[in-house]
Each structure stands twice: as structure tokens, then as C-alpha cells.
Write a structure and sequence with these properties.
This protein has 420 residues and is α/β, with parallel strands linked by helices. It folds into 2 domains: 101 residues, Urease, subunit C, domain 1; 310 residues, Metal-dependent hydrolases (TIM Barrel, Alpha-Beta Barrel). The protein is built from 13 helices and 18 strands. The protein has a 4-stranded mixed sheet with strand order 3-2-1-4, with no helix packed on it. The protein has a 4-stranded antiparallel sheet with strand order 5-14-15-16, with no helix packed on it. Strand 8, helix 4 and strand 9 form a beta-alpha-beta unit. Helix 6 runs parallel beside helix 7. It binds fe (ii) ion. The site of fe (ii) ion (FE2) has 5 residues, from strand 6.
Amino acid sequence: MHQLLLKGAWLEGETVDVAMADGKITAIGHEVPGPAEVEKDVSGLMLSAPLIESHVHLDTTLTAGEPKWNESGTLFEGIETWALRKKTLSREDVIRRATRLLHWQAAQGVLHVRSHVDTTDPELTAVKALLEVRQNLKGLVDVQLVAFPQEGILSYPKGAELMEEALKLGVDVVGGIPHYELTRDMGAESVATSFRLAEKYGRPIDIHCDETDDPQSRFLEIVAALATRSGMGEMVTASHTTAMGSYDDAYAFKLMGFLRRARINFVANPLVNITLQGRMDTYPKRRGLTRIKELWQNGLNVSLGYDDVMDPWYSLGTGNMLQPAHMAVHAAQMTGRQEVTACYDMVTENAARTLGISDRYGLEVGKPADLVLIEAKDKWNAIRRLAPIRLVVKGGKVVSETTASKTTLLGAPLDLGAER
Ligand code: FE2
């Protein structure tokens, strides 16, 4: 007897059934026979592995306007505003806001989330609160936490010690922010510190790297060099890397070869970076994004994050991962037929590689029964229409359902184009 049997989903142009038992996928194919404890007709919906958030800040989320709005819209006013809000942080405050966003994301099919958490706080209030949230939401969303030194590892008092303390408390990943250290040398040393901590505690690395329009910000080459030298390769992620969009082509071409050798992951945050970067430009105004398309064309693993949802850096947002994918299509000019589909992969399977969870992720028999049903025929259509996520299944149980909206025009039902 199946635990759950979903009938008639679209999958890569075909109609399939999917059966689950004991929290695992047990069959995917045409006409899978019952019986099942729960059977659902999901015809007209696309079967997909869950969406993945590979870069968000759960400690800062849902604080936009507190204690003031970021009127200049810059990264730096965001950091100043957060330093003010951080003074009023409490355990309950962080737990309430982070849980709310994770619930929003789960209902939108996001079942794996990597969140950075600010460690430049002598009390580590947010770290301790998010460790509780990670535990509380087990069974709904898998959360990974990154020790993120917002105000610097070397530029903030006891920055390295606080990072290490966070790792001892159970934070999963080592972060960094070399471009925000006080000098270039301190930035380089901070990257080395991140690698030292990662090797000491056996953790992956995810560094906020070169999140600036400054073409001289070149910490990515240091991250790549240390990833190659340490052999950590795929355990290393460079987030943002927006300065790549401002590098001259001769340097970028040389760097691309080093990156291919290093085999590190990239996370781009196109929704937020297209608004935060280019702020010092008049015209032409830079897009302030990393070279998403070229990294992808060079076979490097690129995933997308939301980065900020209603906080000092981005006052909008819902946590729906189709939105950064949609923005990447536009801002990175990935409008080719396969390129649009690739942007869907950047919030699903590529993100699973970034998070190091590919062995337990995907639509395969024997894998965990975590999946979503989207009101679209294929990945391209899902991005074009920012299609609603109608059903979310975790461990073989339906955890979220969204009913279809109905539209009529001049008294007749209107086809909303889910099939094209
Ligand atoms: Fe970030």
C-alpha cells in the first residue's frame, strides 16, 4: 500500500504517476497501480523536485523600515541600518521572523534553505535563535546555517573567535566578507581564516565575495586558489561575486580558467544585486551582477538565492524562488529556450549541488519523497508565468496546498496559459 499516490502529473512532456511509501519515492511511471492511503489527481500540474533557497538572511528578514528605511538603497546604508536594528535583537524576535519566512517558503515549495547568520554580535543572539529554528522546523524545511561575519572577521573585535564559537554551537558552514574588511590585505587574510576554520571543523565554505562594483575587488581569485590548494573544491561557494560584472574581459577570461580548475560553486542573487549595485553610477548604469551566463556556459555550478526578504537591503519580496529565476532570465539575458530552463535548474538541482545534498535530492526512486506540483506544463512555462505552487509534499505527506484561482473574462472562463 502506497502512503501517497499522485496521478497524472506532467514530467518532461509526459504524463506520470508518482508513488511514495515510508517517506521515500517508490515508483514514477505511467499508470502506477494503487491502492494508496491517499490518492490525488494532479493532472495539469508539473512534477518537480523541491525548490531550494541557496542564499538568504533569516536573521534580518521582515525588518524593513526598522528603525529606519534604507533611503539610498545602497548595500552600505543597508549594513548601517542593520547595525542599528541589531541592537534590539532578541531570541523571540529572530525566531518569530525567521519561522514566518520559512513557512512562506515551504508553502511555495522551498524545502531546503541555506541561510547566513550574522556572527558579529558578542552575544550571538541570532545564531542561537536560528539554531533553534533549524531544529523546530525539521520535518518541514531543512535549514543550513552559515556563520556570516557581517562587519568583518578581522575588522570586528573578536570576529574570528565569534565565528569559531558559532561553529562550536553547531552552525553548518563557514562564511566570510573579504571585500568589507578594512584593507585589501585584511580581506586576503580573512579568506585564509575562513579556510582554516573550515578545515579545522570539517565544514563547507560559503563566502560573500566581491559584492561591489569595484573592478579591483579580486578576492574571488584567492577563494579559488585556496579551494584548489586545499582540495576543498565543490565544498566551497562564492556568493554574489558582483565585481565580476565590472572586471575587464582580459582578467575575467584568465580568471574563468582558474575557476574551472577550482570547481567551486557560485550563488548569484539577481533580485537584490540589480537593485543594490550600480548605485554610484550615473549612465550607463551597471547591472551589478556576476557573470551568470558565462559561468554557466563554462560548466560551473551556478545557483540563485533570494538574499533578502523585506529587510534593510531589500524592502520587497515573498521568498518565492521563481522570482530570482525570472530576474536572472532578464538581467543575465538568459532568454534562449534552454537558458530559461537552466534558470529553473539554478533554483533546484544546481542549488542542491551548492548545498551538498544531491545524494538525497531529486525525482528518483529511493530518494526522499519531497516534491512539488506546479501549475505549469514545463520549467519554461513555470518561469514565464511565475506559476503558483499548488501542492508541496515532504516525506510523503502533503504539507501545503494552494487552490487554483479561476478567472473569467466577459463571462467566459479564461485560459491562463499554463500549457504554453
Ligand atoms: Fe547575502
